[in-house]
Amino acid sequence: MDLRDAILQASDIKTEKMKVPEWKVTIGIKEATMKEANDARKISEVDGEVDTDKLTIEMFLTCVVTPGTSDPIFKREDIKALEGKGFEVMDRVMTAIMKLNGQGEPELKAAVKN
Asked: pTM to 2 decimals?
């Protein structure tokens, strides 16, 4: 197998299980693909700037999955209901998603600026 094929065939999307005691469930979280991350940024743009609130919910929709799969649990029509969930639990899930996607606080701030 040549180098190109090795890279293209590699399974490189990280996934983790995360217990969420407040919801009494274990969810899956996954790394976004390059396309998913780019789509989330595009959807989140307002007047050429990334709206961090929109980016947060787009990444949540993309990266919260049924454990053991890459099937998203939530859909766009769930946004209003998700916005009514507790900030602490949502922030904890988003922090885990962003870490899995290689985005800490400095990287997030830089991504929003670009």
From this structure: 0.85
